[in-house]
Design goal:
single chain, alpha+beta, Alpha-Beta Plaits, 4 strands
């Protein structure tokens, strides 16, 4: 069964194009290392909640939008091997170089986690 990494981040609205460029560059590495699919979604219909919501979860400011993303892997082992390479300080891939491809958002407010699908309906 596949394995899913999910992410929620706040990105300055002014950095939308920078975010898309950053994502295309970084996401290509995930695909090369075995990801089946990488999806980056910019907020369009994200209502404010009374107790919690996407914006509150990442402490989005008025000048920021929420991005919801996921990576689909064939299995957790493939994901773990990819992350081990990406986090290796000897990894010289320029897509991981923060000076060449800086994150156009505050990574400290990113929420992420790995998930095992329990229901997977397809048409």
């Amino acid at each position: 069964m596949s394995y899913i990494d999910g992410f929620v981040i706040a990105v300055p609205k002014a950095n939308r194009d920078k975010f898309i460029d950053h994502a295309k560059t970084a996401d290509s590495l995930f695909v090369e290392m075995g990801a089946i699919r990488v999806v980056e979604c910019w907020a369009e219909d994200v209502p404010e909640g009374k107790v919690t919501d996407f914006r509150m979860a990442v402490k989005a400011e008025a000048d920021e939008d929420v991005v919801f993303s996921w990576i689909e892997w064939p299995d957790k082992d493939t994901r773990d091997k990819c992350y081990a390479v990406m986090m290796d300080p000897d990894n010289k891939d320029p897509r991981m170089d923060q000076e060449k491809n800086p994150m156009p958002f505050d990574g400290k407010r990113m929420i992420w986690g790995g998930f095992t699908p329990v229901v997977d309906l397809k048409n």
